[in-house]
Design brief:
CATH topology of chain B: Ubiquitin-like (UB roll)
Number of strands of chain A: 10
Strand order of the largest sheet of chain B: 2-1-7-4-5
Largest sheet of chain B: 5 strands, mixed
Number of strands of chain B: 7
CATH class of chain A: Alpha Beta
CATH architecture of chain A: 3-Layer(aba) Sandwich
Structural class of chain B: mainly beta
Radius of gyration of chain A: 20 Å
Number of domains of chain A: 1
CATH architecture of chain B: Roll
Order of helices and strands of chain A: EEHEHEHEHHHEHHEEHHHEEH
Shape of chain B: globular
Strand content of chain A: 5-15%
Number of domains of chain B: 1
Number of helices of chain B: 1
Number of helices of chain A: 12
Helix content of chain A: 40-55%
Distance between the termini of chain B: 39 Å
Helix content of chain B: 10-25%
CATH topology of chain A: Rossmann fold
Oligomer: heterodimer
């Protein structure tokens, strides 16, 4: 297969675009696509202070790399989740990436700051680890962004993530979640920072191809708790469809955002108040994060640094 | 040929005979939409021929939890 732009040997085939590109043209294509998504969805401008949530995986490190190459200079935020060697390696990869490019990096250690790592949190709550982990990450990312004066948070969610989430929300008719599903979530409260997903139109395969061609040293291992996750089942099903019908994932997500989401968004913003415990926005008297950690720390008492 | 699969756990299989990348993925039951095939430092497209003497690596693109 030849590159459609220069005739050299192609490195990446893009069936949904009916094209194939060599390594240099593919890298330029990927960066241009992300740049267009940032502009088209008015995610941020050069005057914004951008915080990138970085796990050490291919998506978040690719996002950080692309933003850097597009002329932005975002700060990274890594949350050490306390999941044994997996978390230690994730932090090491993130730190190495930041060090090699001389980028600012903030690190929050869940266990040091709040008292428990994800495994102990799950044990205390008697719930699957992913629920406490996801809630903690969303809360901490926003809180750090507010406290450090960032105007926007960027995450590495890709097209496969968005399509899988959409499929899950549709299968269970999660109307609230469908109304919130958007590549841009504006700040609706002074202590809520705008959140954006610049990679939301790039597939997971396109993202890993970019990371490999740029020689980004990401953590290849999956989180040990992800095995059997419903999102992986949805991704698998969507890729089976994509293989027969290139562009299906894009049509699903783009069509939803263009046709259905505007209808759902009317009146979708719930009234926010400040949490009695931490002061961050919530729809109830005490926010879900504080309720969860209160419950966990009652069962496993520790003395956290931050609460 | 030697095939190293990271899906994401690492395993290795030996495959006999010359074939195209797309055929190799099909035989191994791996979806071409979610896997990248690498030889040396090169990413390979589905029509690329692989030889018996090659060592290739297949990387899964998929990740994700419930958070």
């Amino acid at each position: 297969m030849k590159c459609k732009q220069c005739g050299q040997k192609a490195a990446v085939e893009l069936r949904r675009h009916n094209t194939a590109l060599c390594a240099p043209h593919y890298l330029a294509f990927f960066e241009r696509q992300v740049e267009r998504a940032i502009a088209r969805w008015r995610m941020f401008s050069p005057t914004d202070r951008i915080l990138v949530a970085v796990s050490g995986g291919k998506d978040s490190l690719t996002l950080w790399e692309v933003l850097l190459r597009l002329g932005y200079r975002p700060t990274g935020l890594h949350i050490h989740l306390g999941i044994g060697p997996y978390s230690d390696l994730s932090l090491a990869k993130t730190e190495a990436f930041a060090r090699e490019r001389d980028l600012p990096l903030l690190v929050v250690r869940l266990e040091e700051t709040y008292g428990l790592g994800v495994p102990q949190l799950a044990q205390a709550l008697r719930r699957v680890p992913c629920s406490g982990c996801g809630l903690s990450k969303r809360y901490i990312i926003n809180r750090v962004a507010v406290e450090q004066g960032f105007t926007v948070v960027a995450t590495g969610h890709n097209l496969d993530d968005e399509a899988a989430t959409l499929l899950g929300n549709l299968l269970h008719w999660q109307m609230d979640a469908l109304a919130r599903q958007n590549p841009v979530l504006e700040a609706t409260h002074p202590r809520l920072v705008k959140r954006v997903k610049p990679l939301f139109l790039m597939t997971e395969k396109e993202t890993v191809s970019y990371a490999l061609l740029r020689r980004i040293d990401y953590i290849p291992d999956e989180c040990p708790y992800a095995e059997g996750a419903r999102s992986l089942l949805y991704k698998d099903a969507l890729n089976t469809i994509e293989a027969e019908s290139p562009g299906a994932k894009h049509h699903l997500v783009a069509g939803f955002l263009e046709r259905l989401h505007p209808l759902l968004s009317e009146g979708a913003s719930p009234a926010l108040q400040e949490c009695e415990r931490c002061g961050y926005p919530t729809t109830s008297a005490v926010c879900a994060f504080c309720r969860m950690w209160d419950q966990a720390l009652q069962r496993i008492p520790v003395t956290p640094a931050h609460r | 040929m030697r095939v190293i699969i990271r899906n994401p756990r690492r395993r290795e299989v030996e495959v006999q005979g010359r074939r195209r990348v797309g055929d190799l993925l099909r035989e191994l039951g791996l979806n071409p939409e979610s896997h990248v095939v690498i030889r040396g430092e090169d990413l390979l497209t589905s029509d690329e021929w692989l030889q018996d003497t090659d060592t290739v690596e297949i990387v899964s693109a998929i990740s994700g939890g419930r958070g």
